[in-house]
Amino acid sequence: MATDPCEIPRPSCLSLPRMNGMNELIELAQVGDSPEIAALVNKAYRPESDVVGWTHESALVAGDRTSSRQVENLFRQDSFVLVMKRNGEVVACVHVELADNDCWIGMLATLPADQNSGVGKRMLLAAEASAIEHFTPKRLMMSVLSSRPELLSFYQRRGYQLTGQVSDYPREVGVGTPLSKELKVLALQKLL
After folding, report:
1. What percent of the chain stands above pLDDT 90?
2. Which one, 18, 45, 48, 146, has the greatest CB density within 10 A?
3. Would 152 be classed as within a structural domain?
4. Which domain holds residue 91?
């Protein structure tokens, strides 16, 4: 998908302190990063059964969480993806998109080996700062699966609150098939 680079907001790269002796940088992803981003998101959310991590949805949803094509479609006006690269490899990502006067933050993912290391918190902070800097939204929004109380708690500790908006799992957008009919999507907000 060809996109005029002038239409995409260009958040500043955020240099981060070295962690474990490796250089890490949060930067604006490029369309060419799409396959690596999709692989990371699928590894974080829908890994093989022997992979350890706390963001897994494999017991709740079957199938891939995203595809390279879906990630490519995020590169458009008022939408961007931030990635953390360590020694050139994408180890974390997050998507930011302006919709009306709100910014939606989603697809926050880190390598399973990096979960519980603070990388996800740093990516969320970078997404929030970039959203505020480039879009000046009234609030930050995100969605969480109803059967993920630990993830809901993670976001609530960071100032997000349930809006009361509950919707069915979006089967039609190609992000997997829920294994339970009771699985819902909860909206969260952080007022600015």
Report:
1. 60
2. 45
3. no
4. 5-137
Q: How is residue 26 written in tokens?
A: 């949060």
**CA-angle at 47, arms to 43 and 49, nearest 5°:** 155
How many C-beta atoms surround the C-beta of residue 66 within 10 A? Answer: 25
Give the CATH number of the domain where residue 117 resides.
3.40.630.30
The domain tally of the chain equals 1
Please check whether residue 161 lies inside any domain of the structure: no
Residue 85 and residue 111 in contact, taking contact as beta carbons nearer than 8 Å = no
> Beta-carbon neighbour count of residue 42 at 10 Å?
17
- Closest CA relative to residue 114, chosen from 181, 190, 62, 52: 52
pLDDT in tens, 2-20: 343 334 444 444 443 344 4
